[in-house]
Amino acid sequence: MKKYKEVSIDPTTQKMYERAQELGIETVWERLEKQQPQCGYGLLGICCRNCMMGPCRINPFGGEPKRGVCGADADTIVARNLLRMIAAGAAAHSDHGRHVALTLLVAAEMAEKFKKEGKPVLELDNMASNTLPYQVRDPEKLKAVAKRLGIETEGKSIRELAKEVAEVALNDFGKQDEEPLAFLKAYLNPKTYEIFEKAAEKAGMPWFENGILPRSIDREIVESLHRTHIGTDHDPVSILLHGLKTALGDAWGGSLIATELQDVLFGTPKVIKAEANLGVLKEDYVNIVVHGHEPVLSEKIVEAAQDPELLELAEKLGAKGINVVGMCCTGLEVLMRHGIPIAGNFLQQEMAIVTGAVEAMVVDVQCIMPATVDVARCFHTKIIDTSPIATFPGAIHIKFDERRADEIAKEIVRTAVENFPNRSKQRVEIPKEKMSGYVGFSVEAILEHFGGTLKPIEEAIVEGKIKGVAGLVGCNNPKVKQDHNHIKIANELMKRDVLLIGTGCWATAAMKYGIFLPEYADTENVGPGLREFAKEWGIPPALNMGSCVDCTRMLVLADLIARDLNVPISALPVVGSAPEAMTEKAVSIGTYFVASGITTHLGVVPPVLGGPKVVKILTQDLYDIVGAAFIVEPDPYKAAKLMYEHIMKKRKELGI
Amino acid sequence: MPPDSKPTIFINPAKCIGCRHCEIACAVEHSKSKNLFSAIFEDPLPQPRIHVLPMGAYNVPMNCRHCENAPCMEVCPTGAIFKDEDGAVLVDVDKCIGCKMCAIVCPFGIPEFDALNGVMFKCDMCPDRRAEGRPPACVEACKTGALMFGTIDEVVSQVRKETAEKIIKLKEGEYKEEYNGWELFRSFQAEVIRINEGESK
Predict the structure, then answer these.
(1) What string of DSSP letters covers A312-358?
(2) Residue ranges of the domains in chain A?
(3) Going by CATH, does the domain composed of A74-266 fall within 2.60.120.10?
């Protein structure tokens, strides 16, 4: 068993991990230990299970077997496996985006139906009616998205626009023509677009029509599975080019649609102060943890928790109220829009239950460990699964339907409230630690903060007050001490006057350590230039841009800067990093960052080292193809140095 | 000095990538059916006699060394442990009383206790396979060369030859360290361990 200090630098995780050991509860760290040694074929990516002649594996020491039964060599196998990871990551983000687009469409269609039935016309036309399960909370953003897409907005109601925008979005998922995605064309600057168009030709594969410009979100994912089927695509170059294309379909398609339409439905985040870490759980309250990735349901849970009837029930059962807190990216979604406190990031999901103070953990999709059910069995906690596509054995299944959103959300909250009397008070142990910070830095909020323009940031970069911008992205991975790399890399970059923007579990980690407080700029972890800039504008030295699906906010920001400077994104002094990467989604994000022109660091070695050609393409050749590549480095200090060097190289190229 | 003509199983941790294929092959070889797909439904479930231990950035396959002067054999009070004609150290389950003395004296921690039958079990170098002239199951399953079956002379002469080739290439300036994904991974792994442990002190 590990010592508590080995698993995390977060004091709440350390305490709860010790508590779990006391109670004999198995956690992610024990399971990782029991998995040792992990299979080297898998770690190197040289295990192929794509057909029943196999499974095959390649000897990484140069001896036999050198090829799989079909004749595929190590590079083919590694590239195929990587493409499948990208496809799965893109699928997860994009299916989330589809769900949001469908929710918008359903709401617009319901408004149309109600209108025909003679209900109040104006409210329905504005999509503001309470009779609808979902309203359009940000009509201005809807109009802005419609304008970007080239939809005529004059003389149209919000209801009509919502329907049209949802239809364009949904068309991007399933269209069959060769045209690039409508959302991509609407959001991407021409210079970067041109790079995408010519990338395949540069890589020596001119037969890729439109280069690596994605045609349809779903189609690129399906084609990934087709290409990796036995006996189809074998050249690591073509396989990886399609990987870039699939990931770009995620970036400028699926994920972008998720972010933009969530803003339309639930409101675009504005700067707001909130709290993070397990200390946000309240001893005398009914604690509900919303965990996963999609805010479509959690938005409704937040509303239902304010229902007078349910509040009354909670009081009757001895609670002071209902405390909804977030976990992972669902948590970030409600944090960004409503300032709902976030209890923690990925590796704290079991820890939250170990507090003994959680009445219900309401889960939707992605990054939810099935082990939460086992940990919950040691307490009164109920795990409630809500997504029709994600069922957890041993959990309570209350499946979600957008049409009956309010009713279902109330049922879920009621289940949690009614569970309060089952809490064993003497087993409750909530760590006290929590931290506040400013969140809600959507692109719109950033623009508003800087007076409607990004000029102040750009000028600070040109002056050298800020050396560049680093986008830090999510995940925890038990192979890395929780949050250790997140915080070290953040500090090392800020010391070098690099402005940070970030999302996902990185953002939650940063918030827990106070990095989202303007005062953090006064610490020795921030360089003098960045300190001066942060103080001048009253911002923290790092900006929380949302959930991991919101990585597109970082892309949109980079696009705006590239437009202002009239260069492709790849020319900017900008880097990305996933210090504690874990998911297939992170693989897709890393790939779309690189494909979009942002050199990206990975702090966990991806399963590709078994293919020398693949390694060379990913870390070197991509510079010539898309102007950016991957950096792999587990040491956070070395990684920050490499990222900074890249920024300085880009500055030199720009002549600043 | 007479040549050592008896082959045994040699391990090379530098080439062990921790896939644990040897463990599965060993268990299947010691099952009733000797077939993976039926072995996993047998009761009792067959157990492996080889174990891969994670040791930092290395993995070490631990199996019976079939010692020349086997302490397990010397200490066995009922004479249940014996050597067959190939030099394999075996347990006669009819004579074994389950006293576990062999496990205590084994410097490699190899003999294990079969609680169901009250006897010890350990690597037997796959007698059925040896009879057919086939290598032990674990060696056959290992595709990286971490497990080798041969005489000590064969093994050392192989190492001697490889190093001699390297020396000549170095002299001629032709020697080039070949790309080795596992070595690269291990160097990263060593870094991860250093970081994870370093900060916790």
Answers:
(1) HHHHHTT-S-EEEEEEHHHHHHHHHHH---B---GGGHHHHHHTS--
(2) 4-57, 74-266, 278-427, 439-654
(3) no
